[in-house]
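Bump. Still looking for Glycosyltransferase structure tokens.
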Amino acid sequence: MLRKPPQTKRKPTNRPKRQPTKNPKQPNQAAKKHWFWGPSAQSSVPTQSQPALQCLTPIVVILPIHNEQASLPGTLKKVTQYIYRHPHVTFVFIDDGSVDRSCDILTQGIRNAKTPQLQMLTYKQRAGKGYAVRMGMRAAVMHCEYLCLLDGDLAYSLDHLDDLMIALQSADIAIGNRALGITTEPKRHWLRGKIRQFFTQLARKGLGLAYPDPQAGLKGFRQPAAQLLFDRQSLTGFSFDLELLYLAKKYGFSVAQIPAQVSQPHQLKVSQVKLVKDHLWMLKDLMRIYFNNWVGRYR
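Sorry for the wait, here they are.
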């Protein structure tokens, strides 16, 4: 059973603090994009609805979704059952411009749950998984002690939250590692597996990351680490995990790994990642990380 984390004193660090701007941008201000590095970390996408999060608990779990109408009813049922047993955990769904019935299903599910432990943020124009995660983390980071990230279709069960919180008692960041878990994923097309393996190795070596599974949708952050990292995150697509871990290494945050077990229903699900297009985009994102660091965007 997930228990409320004990209050622990952290030694003060000398990591730089982000200075507030004199004229902060409004949530509905259009994102400024560049042909190479894309939107800046401070830019925003016009939103359909971005209410303030209310009554947040010490632990907040962010779940980004896009066109998940098929899996959402089951996900909402599991999340609702979980929050009734864990009053110190809040779940926030981020709807990344879904064009199916995801938003309606979420709205009805939250209305039926009748608890502030289940909330959502949504916007009309799809902006990418990285943007959705950043939006949710920024909305919650000043009101909680721990922030967790789970894929919105619960590719990793809620039981993993226990392991994340245990790891975060001695580390700034905790990430899932599918190589440490016992998984029986079905055999995929050999080309998809080879391309994924190649780009993962390229990203690890290019960025100097020591983690064999940097992009598993299972991560946890202590509040100080989350505040600094998501204030500097700029990538809005599937490569945002790589940028976060690169920033974690740059600023000296400790990272723990926990076993990650892919859920049985997710093993049969068709991936939304496009085989060639998204992996070529990942290569471009790696160049963006190098460029952003070179021009001082990560200071």
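The radius of gyration is 18 Å.

Edit: fixed formatting.
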